[in-house]
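Notes from the pairing session

We agreed to fold both candidates in a single pass and log them together. This is the raw record for the first candidate, unedited. Please don't reformat it; downstream parsing expects exactly this layout.

Candidate A
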Amino acid sequence: MDCDVVTAVDGLQAQHELVHGAFDLVLTDLSMPGADGFEVLRAVRELRSGLPAIVLTAHSSTAECVRAMRAGAADFIGKPFDHGQLQQSVRAALHSRQPGTASRPPADDEHLPLATLIGDSPQMQAAIEEVERVAQTDVPIVLFGEPGTGKRALARLVHAMSRRAGKALVAFRCGSLEPEQLDNALFGEDGSTGELFHAAGGTLLISQLERLETARCDKLIGELLRRRPDVRLLFSIDLNQAGGEDTANNLAETLRVTFETVLISMPALRDRQQDLPLLIEHFAELANRRSGRRINAHSLVSALKQYSWPGNLTELEARISQYVTEAPTELVEEAVAQPNEFVVPIQRIRATLILDDGSRREVALPRGQGQSIEELFAAREPFVPVNESGGTRIYARSTLACVVADEPDRADDGLPHKHRAVRVTLRSGIVLEGELRYVAVEGRARVTDVLNEPAPSFALYAGTTTHHIAKAHVRSIEEC
């Protein structure tokens, strides 16, 4: 590969280069003096958002790999590494960064990055723990699950964590070949060709066995058993492609009896809904790199949770990629469910968003004719499109703790009001002070009564500035 390379002797120098240089890709070790690889990944995320990073390390563990993925690494490769594998990973990372590259991902999970394996769901944690238990052995593994669940990504994790990480990981698809081509493609004519030869000393992933006729499948399995090659054998079985759960289970049982395999089940996306926020954020970032846009689809979690995702991770990535690529500058309600229906806001108002984590964002909020900021909190749509300096972003309505805006011409409704100076503490710990105004009604004496009213938000006034506060994010309210 023809690349211009800048080197850094440690993590601190790497951070310095990130501040002062322009790069398309970062390759980093984990164990370094001064600042480790996780500090470098953090600097990449904060200083060069969207810049892909690949982690290389001689001290690989499943826990470190998962932590690196959470920190934003595009790939994780153990040392000593196979040069072909590294080049493939570099090409994929550079390709994902080029605007104008294919916006629609392939219809299988071969391309899915290791980051799709992150998650806190019990099903995903069980799969990762099983990998950690068997990765350092040569025990053959059956990866079992629906298409698009990330079985090939899990195979890459097994290889990266194994003692064979310095050798090649070779993927062989049975279903893409005619029956008469299988033997030559896998075993070669003289033992010096074929995918089995190229995988020598490394890992061989065999998929689509379920697409073969039973007799042909049995013959291939028997030949593998007879040869006993010096490879780590991984088998991937697509549950739906196998024609039913019974057929898939029978194939898995045949492999277990023949090779004494360990079975690792990959959960369907509908069974790991709590992992959706991380996955959506990751796929949105990939789509942003490909399209050259800066749209944050993480806020669409509420809408996307209503879908069962029969295509699993590949369908999720395709939907997010389509959304990021096709959405115009002015984003509107139901943009994912109805990607071709858009409206243009009539007016925008400058405001500061205070989010549920305490962070602040300077934005321009869309506001239709006669619409108030209070209506933003009461609207049924789960997300709010806003303009920021870096482009258009979307925020989940549930993450908006407060909207701060200058409203000097706010109309007086002519009713008698009470005025009380109060201090409001948000759940994030942020304290806001101002004047609470409410209509004087009989029996209302406590400032906390404002929290019991049906409206989802209330206003706090400080001069010409109004704080529109979501009640769901209030920890306490008291008189000053």
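Candidate B (folded immediately after A)
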Amino acid sequence: MNFLYSRARKGRRPSIFHSCGQQPALSHWTLGYGNTGSCTSSITFMDGEKGILRYRGIPVEELAEKATFKETAYLLINGRLPNRDELTRFSVLLNDNSLVHEDLRTFYERFPRSSHPMGILSSMVNALRSFYPELQNLEEEINMTVTRLLSKIRTLAAMSYKISRGHKVVYPRPDLAYCANFLNMMFDSPVKPLRD
């Protein structure tokens, strides 16, 4: 990978031009993003100075008012909002893939109790590849892998939070929707059950 650095504008970090394969790309690094660079994307458009944020061309305000979390996730993955049948299939996939391999608990148990939950979570996402290696280059399989990751990430995040606090892990429930399931896994407790 070749890198070229541009001169920084006043008060900004330099841009980095790099080549991935055949297409040159531009990344702009700022302190506000931490270790993440901004770039041109067909998924997200953001102009902070004008207050514009769009996902796949749809203003985020419109999505917040009219779309559910699952509809927005489907939009980001597939490039369009789902119809009723597609949303139902997507919801079933999210539910069916919410469990994680029980051997992942061994990884969690080896982290120091003082580890930050985000550090644990990022390591666990990388570990998923060892448990689910069937990703191929076909677009349908890539979409399935992204959907599986979206489903498992809430379970992994809740496990990271619970284990970092020494609490009992709460597993996903098939009767709860995506966001309700996440909240239940995060905050349900044997001594203070989370209300449905």
